[in-house]
């Protein structure tokens, strides 16, 4: 009788400790991989596959479609231990609020923290070439052309309304030390050229934070622009994006260069663009902005607009709406793929 | 007394089952991640970070430098269970061979299998844009230009010497179905142009295997080339690579397009290239081949050569050595970074 008792106790201890070991190992692995994910965009982009591979003892889970907005859902993104703790916190909070606060438990309940990268890249990566993560934007760098493929930012109304402190220590534009010296542009390249330094992520979007403001003066975020285009049309476009942010609260913007072909004779087309400086920095023929504006009600698809501005001395007074462009055309010429939201129809101009 | 005995037994069972659970969970995770790694080049490229994150119960291990040739070493690439099994197999083999075969245990001992991707990409990824894995080569696709950034192949002497079976079912060149239709070139694009379809990974390198041979006729491996350049200089360069393979046994080749700027007046340079067809497929101004030839003795650094051939009607009889080029120049204009082996010095031409 006593022997049976001992065997039973050992089996129970063994099985529970076995699962405890597996659960703890999974928790540690997932925590480590999430730490890497927050800084490495390539691992972040494969997160579903990876976390699927880390399922407890190979147990199968369903994977979602990869090209959807990223929303932290417990069953997708956490270990068994993490989920249990989260569920426990949620239940404790509900019981506590029911007995003592008598409020509806849906508001202000504990939330899974989503990372910095997940916040900016909510609508996906348009391309995967040399992605770099900064505090205020994520950037894909074109090593051949020494400027960005695209820069993605997330604008929030809170940050725009705060003006830049008058005594903030601002820095001038400078080379990006994180890029290998062979592929890096310098301020010297821009010095004796006919073009000025234009920003893809606009510094004025980050007037609330000096670090973010100064970061947008890195040369990886800067492109050679025509002076007149930069000072009038491009600036008005940036101002328009900020106004849109104040209206809708949260706006995502992808900005980047385009190299458009032009007809040279009956059947032949060619791409032609200048390069400046010792590092042969490319001067794009056009620039695009793809704007994703979120609805205040969380279920609705976001509204999207695309603008294409030629990199030339365009008329200062010209209406911004004449630069409206089909996002499919931007995708075609830039070789990028954007999110499929409610795209502004070209036949329905206001 | 009896009680102490039971407690002791339970603790021992508990601890061993705990570790067994952790070890099994780690083994399953690593096996799953390795399966993903064999098909996903981005996860493969971060493998050290990932496997480091999966260390047993967070135990710290040393990581190596990431830009070294990939060699399967047990402690780096496997779970604790996998390593134990491998060590066990090795010891069994040694004992067996010592007693029965009386041979030196170093030869033909069990080896860790390295994956297909690890084999081709032994010398690293020159760039990270849209990487695609095929049976005979790995390719980085330039969605903007509808041709490859680079194609990497691993040539082995065995495959080249076998001639293509005369009744092998060969396929003509065709669009690559794995590329989104918006960024895909078609045979129609090449049809009415002044350029012919040239191969980056040469089909004749794969005469031993019909599948690999046919794969090199996918349009993602094809670039618009000048007919005379293709039929003479490029073909001789491919033949030279095959001769080098027969001599050294194992050769890695990176091939790709270049878009070189030319001077337009005193201080200004520009890039200009034609685009053909409805899909605006770019016609590069030059092509490069970077050749990495391995020594027969495994410790030595590999020997590297770079060639740049203009995409124009170059003289048929011209010596291949006049196209020899500094690999740093190729890196500069292509925006790629190659392995640092023993590079052929330009001052020491034969």
UniProtKB/TrEMBL annotation, chains A, B:
Residue positions of the active site: 199
One Pfam family of this chain: Endonuclease_NS
Source domain of life: Eukaryota
Similarity field: Belongs to the DNA/RNA non-specific endonuclease family.
GO cellular component labels: mitochondrial inner membrane; nucleus
GO MF term (any one): metal ion binding
Organism the protein comes from: Drosophila lebanonensis
Name of the protein this chain belongs to: Endonuclease G, mitochondrial
Domain DNA/RNA non-specific endonuclease/pyrophosphatase/phosphodiesterase: 133-345
Span of domain ENPP1-3/EXOG-like endonuclease/phosphodiesterase: 134-345
Sorted UniProt keywords: Endonuclease, Hydrolase, Nuclease
The UniProt record lists the keyword Hydrolase: yes
InterPro entries the UniProt entry points to: DNA/RNA_non-sp_Endonuclease_sf (IPR044929), Endo_G_ENPP1-like_dom (IPR001604), ENPP1-3/EXOG-like_nuc-like (IPR020821), His-Me_finger_sf (IPR044925), Non-specific_endonuclease (IPR040255)
Transmembrane stretches, start-end: none
Any Gene Ontology biological process: apoptotic DNA fragmentation
């Amino acid at each position: 009788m006593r022997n049976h008792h001992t065997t039973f106790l050992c089996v129970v201890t063994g099985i529970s400790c076995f699962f405890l070991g597996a659960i703890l190992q999974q928790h540690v692995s997932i925590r480590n991989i999430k730490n890497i994910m927050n800084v490495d965009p390539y691992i972040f982009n494969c997160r579903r596959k990876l976390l699927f591979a880390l399922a407890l003892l190979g147990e199968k889970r369903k994977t979602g479609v990869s090209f959807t907005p990223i929303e932290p859902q417990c069953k997708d993104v956490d270990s068994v231990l993490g989920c249990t703790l989260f569920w426990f916190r949620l239940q404790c909070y509900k019981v506590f609020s029911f007995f003592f606060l008598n409020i509806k438990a849906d508001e202000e309940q504990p939330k899974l923290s989503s990372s910095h990268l997940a916040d900016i890249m909510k609508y996906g990566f348009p391309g995967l070439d040399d992605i770099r993560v900064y505090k205020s934007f994520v950037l894909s760098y074109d090593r051949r052309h020494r400027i960005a493929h695209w820069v993605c930012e997330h604008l929030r109304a809170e940050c725009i309304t705060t003006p830049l402190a008058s005594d903030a220590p601002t820095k001038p534009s400078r080379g990006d030390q994180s890029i290998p010296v062979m592929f890096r542009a310098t301020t010297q390249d821009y010095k004796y050229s006919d073009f000025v330094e234009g920003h893809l992520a606009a510094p004025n979007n980050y007037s609330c934070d000096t670090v973010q403001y100064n970061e947008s003066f890195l040369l990886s975020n800067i492109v050679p622009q025509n002076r007149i285009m930069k000072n009038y049309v491009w600036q008005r476009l940036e101002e328009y994006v900020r106004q849109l942010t104040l209206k809708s609260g949260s706006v995502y913007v992808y900005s980047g260069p385009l190299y458009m072909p032009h007809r040279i004779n009956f059947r032949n087309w060619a791409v032609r663009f200048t390069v400046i400086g010792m590092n042969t920095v490319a001067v794009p023929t056009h620039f695009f902005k793809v704007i994703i504006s979120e609805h205040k009600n969380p279920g609705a698809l976001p509204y999207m607009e695309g603008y294409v501005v030629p990199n030339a001395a365009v008329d200062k007074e010209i209406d911004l709406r004449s630069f409206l462009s089909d996002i499919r055309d931007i995708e075609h010429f830039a070789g990028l793929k954007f999110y499929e939201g409610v795209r502004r129809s070209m036949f329905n101009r206001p």
